[in-house]
Amino acid sequence: MTVPQTEPLNLPATMEPDNPLWRYALACWQNPELAQACLTLQSRDWSVTRILCAGWLGVNGHLFTGVEDAKVTEWRARVTGSIRSARKSIPRHHNGCRDLREALARAELQAEQTELALAWHTLTPRYPETGKMHNRKTAILQNLLAAAPRREADTRAPISLDTLAGLLAAAAGEPQP
After folding, report:
1. Left (φ > 0), alpha (ψ -120 to 50) or beta: where does 90 sit?
2. Residue 3 lies in a domain
3. Domain hosting residue 74, numbered range
4. The pTM is what?
5. 116, 121, 124, 168: which is closest to 142 by C-alpha?
């Protein structure tokens, strides 16, 4: 079987892997309930990057249109998704492949960080540091609806989007009602 060669992606030279969006993502992952909610939604075709962008933009008072730069979606499809698929193909408790599965998990995290760096790179020129939306949780909720896969937009999500919005706000230090 011949595997077609793909051209390397054209990535911006000025990407910042350690940026405010990445640090927000790390803060989100400190909350096990929020992390599990994101992973559950991911299993239902939601993009965790889109969820995190929705939260970060909302915390900063901005609305998310749901439109992403093509470089972000291409990276997600060609790199992050491929690594995730390879990792998931290896049985979790298979001793002979444990090291490979763990290496792929680390590579997947690096790919996610790069995906967020690409998102950050494309979001920062469009959005000044703080926006006009003062009710952060409402902004996050609206952003989550924009970030939802179209077939899930009717709020059939396995977790209440209102609860998720509160968790995303709390990750940035916003008080929960």
Report:
1. beta
2. no
3. 20-171
4. 0.86
5. 168
Of the CA atoms within 13 Å of residue 69, those in its CB half-sphere come to: 19
Do residues 119 and 113 make contact, with C-beta atoms less than 8 angstroms apart? Answer: no
Tens of pLDDT, residue by residue over 110-143, are: 999 999 999 999 987 666 555 566 688 899 999 9
Token pair belonging to 34: 């929020």
Sign of CA dihedral 2, 91, 73, 108: negative
Per the domain annotation, does 155 fall within a domain?
Answer: yes
Residues 107-144 as b or e (16 or more Cβ within 10 Å = b): bbeebbbbbbbbbbbbbeeeeeeebebeebbebbbbbb
DSSP assigned state of 77: I
Write the single-letter amino acid at 177. P
Report the alpha-carbon distance of residue 52 to residue 56 in Å, rounded: 6
Amino acid letter at 148?
A
Which among 17, 30, 44 is positioned nearest to 147, based on CA atoms?
44
Q: What's the CA gap between 73 and 115, in Å, rounded?
A: 9
